[in-house]
Amino acid sequence: MAVNAWLSLLVAGVMETGWAIGLKYTEGFSRLVPSVITIALMAGSFYFLSKSLSDLPIGTAYAVWTGIGAVGTVILGMYLFGESRDLLRILCLLLIISGIVGLKMVSAD
User: Fold this and answer.
1) Which letter does DSSP use for residue 82 in this model?
2) How far apart are the C-alpha atoms of 46 and 84, rounded to whole Å?
3) What is the C-alpha to C-alpha distance for residues 42 and 38, in angstroms, rounded to an integer?
4) pLDDT category of residue 78 using cuts at 50, 70 and 90
5) pTM for this predicted structure
6) Cβ distance 51 to 43 under 8 Å?
7) DSSP string, 3-55
8) Helix axes 58-81, 32-52, angle to 10 degrees
9) Is-annotated flag, keyword rRNA-binding (predicted)?
10) 3-state SS, residue 59
11) What is the spatial distance between Cα 84 and Cα 89, in angstroms, rounded to a whole number?
12) Confidence of residue 1 (pLDDT cuts 50, 70, 90)
């Protein structure tokens, strides 16, 4: 069922955001607990991405997965690490989000 595939893809994207942020905390995989959590999130992200591929085209799923991860990582980077919140940066995020929504809208369910 396509709904479950999209839900799996959403979970995969959120987990991708988690492992991308986790990399910052691993300090080059020299800290045990953040490293274990980051690796678990990586594995979970790939697992849920692979589950979504049973019903979704690979190109769409991969683009949406990376888009969710990119947007989530940038937003958390702003919040957690004080990264730039410039208007142009926000507009670029909105372009990525519009691409994700567009791919969802044109993908056959």
Assistant:
1) -
2) 29
3) 6
4) very high
5) 0.90
6) no
7) HHHHHHHHHHHHHHHHHHHHHHHHTTTTSHHHHHHHHHHHHHHHHHHHHHTTT
8) 150
9) no
10) helix
11) 8
12) low
pLDDT (average), residues 23-36: 97
Token pair in block for residue 23: 């990399």
Q: What percent of the chain is predicted at pLDDT more than 70? A: 97
Is residue 68 a contact partner of residue 20, using CB atoms and an 8 Å limit?
Answer: no
Domain ranges of the chain: 2-106
In this prediction, residues 74-91 reach a mean pLDDT of 96
20 neighbors 83 (Cβ within 8 angstroms): no
Give the separation between CA 51 and CA 33, rounded to whole angstroms. Answer: 27
Six token digits for residue 81: 């690490």
Question: Is 72:17 a contact under the CB 8 Å cutoff?
Answer: yes
**104 is written with which tokens?**
């969802």
